[in-house]
Amino acid sequence: MSELYGLRSSRHLKKMMKYMQYVFNDHFVIVCVFLLGGLGFYYSELLKNLPEDFVWGRPLILVIWLVILLIGQLATLTQEADKVFILPKEAEMPDYFNRAFRHSFILPTVAITLLSGMTMPLLVVSGSEEFSSFFIYLLTLLLLKAAHLKWQEYDLYQISISESRSWQAIWFVASGGTLAAGLYVNPFVGLGISVIILGVFLVFLTRKKQQVSLDWEKMIKKENNRMHRIYRFINLFTDVPEITGSIKRRKLFDPVLNKIKKENKNTYLYLYARSFLRGSEYSGLFVRLLGVAGLILFFSKDLILSMGVAVVFIYLLGFQLIPIYAQFDYMVMTHLYPTPAKQKKQAVSFLLNVLLAIAAAIFGLIALFILPEKQEALLLIGAMVVEIILFTRFYVPQRLKKMEE
């Protein structure tokens, strides 16, 4: 069974690496570098201006550490057919879960290390803590995460919902108390408690698993839900066969479609607009990115950060909508339309201009209300206008040309 998980793990990683080359493309990496650089600069300036008696530092770190402990789920990599073909091997599943635990522990370890390292300067500034204690806190967090994964493994067995929630609540309260003890008493106290918590989960849950059987339906459903969340994230960057969009009438937008005259020159514009407004693939992506950017801008009162966020998300919105160009290439009838080839490019460029202008207008309104100086908001709006012009006039045509090659 251990070898089976190893085989599935290698196939899974190979498939994910194939998708990652589309997610972390050159443009996205460059944008992330600039965004992280801006956030890092803003964070460092914020730390410099914090008062020495900043009492909210430790509670804020406690909340952040509790949240990052939730990163990562147990990846069982189980499939629908397992409940028939692997069921006779249920007695050997502990070996399978041991490999699953080691595989699933890698991502949380990386995420916890990076995020806790980023918050450590705040703890040093606000709590008179030493940087050397970081490794003690990190080990405490990793032990608590190990206990969390062990609870997730136990949750795959035939237990009641109330028992599952009880163990989850026990882990959450114990983790919060452990981190509080480490932050407010002594880091070694929190480390000692985390060792005890992991030991308790290992001993008690191992015994309880011997008294119940695996719930194959629940295990497969959890794994399918986990993979669906991963595919939804990847779908923000490229098409994923496992994700299918839904179609809705959305009568609210009928007047918008009716304004497009049904003429030969508007053939593709009508098709693209209809696809965007009534499909969930691109409209959902647009709304999600718009919401994230709007939320960040709402809590940002710094011009540099606000401009960086607005410019980055305008680019991301436009970049993620470009693939709509090939939306109807699979339809035979579109190849028979008596329309010139350049009409497709003109339609996509026009649609991107309209959508990016709507996004810029929303970002501009938020900036006008949030930024302290109106001149700063106007400067941000001007930067977005220039970016949209450069993006649609120069970048989009080159991108579409590459898509046709």
From TrEMBL:
User: Which Pfam families does the entry link to?
Assistant: EcsB (PF05975)
* Residue stretches spanning the membrane: 21-43, 55-77, 105-125, 191-207, 282-299, 305-326, 347-371, 377-396
- Keyword terms: Membrane, Transmembrane, Transmembrane helix
| Superkingdom per UniProt | Bacteria
Q: What is this protein called?
A: ABC transporter permease
